């Protein structure tokens, strides 16, 4: 099994999230069958909460840098605008 660097607790959290989704599907199916069983809903909410609790410690993925050119262009345009505004304010002071 390939290790992505995720600790075991994060993987267990993912398992609980998937199980919560499956139990929620059972709840939806019971609702469609006109035999609503709210136990499935409460169990799925509990599993989702446990999964979220375990997965919340996972570090966010590193930036891929896909939009670095866009960010750089916007940053340069903002700097030019600030310089132009500053030059205009300096001209008014004289």
**Rg estimate, integer Å:** 26 Å
Distance between the termini: 71 Å
Order of helices and strands: HHH
- Which quaternary structure do these chains form? single chain
Q: Provide the helix percentage.
A: over 70%
β content, as a range? under 5%
**On the 0-100 scale, what is the average pLDDT?**
88
Number of domains: 2
Low-pLDDT residue intervals, each spanning 5 or more residues: none
Count of helical stretches: 3
Briefly note the structural class of the backbone.
mainly alpha
Shape: elongated
- Please report the total strand number as a whole number: 0
Q: Characterize the biggest β-sheet.
A: none
Layout: helices, strands, pairs:
Layout: H1 8-32, H2 38-55, H3 68-93
Helix pairs in contact: 1-2
Describe this structure in words.
- It is elongated, with a radius of gyration of 26 Å.
- The protein contains 3 helices and no strands.
- It has helices spanning 8-32, 38-55, 68-93.
- It has 2 domains: 1-61; 63-94.
- It has 94 residues and is an all-alpha fold.
- Helix 1 packs antiparallel against helix 2 (38-55).
Outline:
The protein is mainly alpha-helical and 94 residues long.
Please describe the structure with a list of short key phrases separated by commas or semicolons.
mainly alpha, single chain, about 90 residues, 2 domains, 3 helices, elongated
């Amino acid at each position: 099994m390939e290790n992505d660097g995720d600790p075991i607790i994060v993987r267990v959290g993912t398992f609980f999230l998937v199980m919560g989704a499956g139990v929620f599907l059972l709840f939806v199916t019971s609702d469609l069958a006109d035999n609503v069983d709210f136990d499935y809903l409460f169990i799925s909410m509990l599993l989702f909460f446990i999964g979220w609790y375990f997965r919340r410690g996972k570090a966010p993925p590193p930036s891929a840098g896909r939009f670095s050119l866009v960010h750089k262009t916007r940053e340069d345009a903002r700097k030019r605008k600030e310089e132009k505004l500053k030059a205009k304010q300096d001209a008014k002071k004289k």
